[in-house]
Design a protein that fits this description.
By secondary structure, the protein is α/β, with parallel strands linked by helices. It has a domain of 245 residues: P-loop containing nucleotide triphosphate hydrolases (Rossmann fold), CATH 3.40.50. Helix content is 26%, strand content 21%. It is built from twelve helices and 14 strands. The strands form three sheets. An eight-stranded mixed sheet has the order 6-7-8-3-9-10-12-11, sandwiched between helices. It has a four-stranded antiparallel sheet with strand order 2-1-4-5. Strand 4 and strand 5 form a beta hairpin. The structure holds adenosine-5'-triphosphate, iron/sulfur cluster and magnesium ion. The site of adenosine-5'-triphosphate has 13 residues, from strand 2 and helix 2. Adenosine-5'-triphosphate binds next to strand 2 and helix 2.
Length: 404
């Protein structure tokens, strides 16, 4: 549904109070996710419930989050964003890959080993209605993590709760009210105060503003930005809409059916996306001006639903909905290729909108012909699929590796 013309857009509202968060390229990573997998078993009906497959909700994603920085994770409903967030914060135990948080692999730790680290990695949930227990007062909700982790002496808990309420812009005297006495935006502030109670270094915010009106969205995003600056907190900010993460995240990863398909710095991703899926998401976002995709009028429309993660399409998972798909796309999975200083994309025909190549850019690297069949004469290249960005990349135009 398109927004009425005179309704203030999220980006305008955000720009009124805070500048967009900038990338600090010198910040060391606080979190490195390498090939993270989260599969859920699918079992047969009946008495003996045999495993008959897997829901491959997250299927090998890699990225880094800089200390005190924020990375956006976007994609349509069902692509695995929340599952990724839950696997990172160990609400789920990942079935593969690693989650390095300050030198410790969260994915491999036992529950006991995890306890001290849980403080440092917190999650804020989408639904401010269901994520707060309606029978507990706000004071009890925010005070619970303080008590469990012995953060403050018992007689200081109330003072700390009130301080936290103030930090998130709520009246500290309202600690003995119940969640249903607050609006949606205020409840989300309560959820944020609860996450802040433990002074985390990283917050995974899972669609923290999706349930809110656009003006309240702007207030909550501005609050997160202020908190990030004040307390040096890193964020993985999950959203289904590219417009929502643009202001807060100088780096954005786009996810489709369990995989990251493109990841780049803000300017590159919004003005020169190279993956047809990112281009389609941008075409569909009412908040992102057309100028954002080079001012061109071409649009890629997304049709159909996201396929099931139990049986994802062979080769490129986007091929069943991709207007550019060719034979190679069904046969070979496109590798995640770094194509600029801070730009990676997984597409055989990566290119700017209206300027995609007619031949695949990946065939020679992968040792296949243009149709994706093995090419005995080719010499495949060992592709670097490490998280983050390297200092050499593949130049799409020259079709060679470049090192500036
Ligand atoms: N506990 C589970 N058991 C089995 N399948 C699951 C489980 N949790 C999620 N899934 C499946 O994994 C896929 C990804 O779900 P997920 O909730 O992570 O998507 P999402 O990107 O967060 O979507 P949304 O935007 O709707 O929140 C979906 O197909 C979902 O049905
Ligand atoms: S690899 Fe093929 S199907 Fe996948 S996005 Fe690129 S062109 Fe489309
Ligand atoms: Mg979700």
């Amino acid at each position: 549904m398109s927004e009425p013309e005179n309704k203030p857009q999220l980006e305008e509202l955000l720009a009124q109070s805070n500048k967009p968060t900038e990338l600090d390229p010198t910040a060391p990573p606080i979190l490195t996710i390498d090939n993270l997998e989260m599969y859920f078993p699918v079992r047969s009906n009946g008495v003996i419930r045999r495993k008959i497959g897997d829901v491959k909700a997250v299927d090998g994603i890699s990225l880094t989050i800089p200390k005190g920085g924020s990375v956006g994770l976007v994609g349509e409903s069902g692509c695995g964003k929340s599952t990724a967030g839950r696997a990172i914060t160990r609400l789920y135990k990942p079935t593969g890959g690693s989650v390095d948080f300050q030198g410790r692999n969260l994915a491999a730790l036992s529950t006991r080993e995890l306890k001290p680290l849980r403080r440092e990695v917190q999650m804020v949930f989408q639904d401010p209605y269901s994520s707060l227990n309606p029978r507990h007062t706000v004071g009890a909700i925010i005070g619970a993590p303080l008590r469990i982790h012995n953060m403050v002496p018992k007689n200081k808990t109330l003072a700390r709760v009130q301080e936290l309420l103030e930090v998130v812009g709520l009246n500290p005297e309202h600690y003995n009210r119940y969640p249903n006495e607050f609006s949606g935006g205020q409840r989300q502030r309560i959820g944020i105060a609860r996450a802040l109670a433990l002074q985390p270094k990283l917050i995974v915010a899972d669609e923290p503003v999706s349930a809110l009106d656009v003006s309240i969205q702007a207030q909550v995003i501005n609050l997160l930005q202020d908190l990030q600056r004040e307390f040096d907190i890193a964020f993985l900010f999950i959203a289904h809409d590219l417009a929502v993460v643009r202001h807060f995240c100088p780096e954005v990863a786009v996810m489709y059916l369990g995989k990251i398909v493109e990841i780049a710095d803000r300017d590159t991703l919004y003005s020169r996306p190279n993956h047809p899926y990112t281009q389609a998401l941008l075409s569909a976002a009412p908040d992102v001006k057309q100028a954002a995709i080079g001012g061109r009028r071409e649009r890629i429309r997304l049709t159909g639903d996201v396929p099931s993660p139990i049986n994802p399409p062979s080769g490129c998972r986007f091929r069943t909905r991709c207007p550019l798909a060719q034979e190679i796309c069904a046969k070979v999975e496109p590798p995640m290729l770094q194509i600029g200083p801070r730009h990676k994309v997984a597409c055989h025909f990566a290119g700017e909108l209206g300027n995609h190549p007619t031949d695949p850019v990946t065939d020679r690297l992968l040792g296949v012909d243009v149709n994706g069949n093995p090419d005995p004469g080719a010499s495949p290249v060992e592709l670097d699929d490490k998280p983050g960005f390297g200092d050499v990349w593949f130049d799409l135009k020259a079709r060679t590796t470049v090192k500036p």
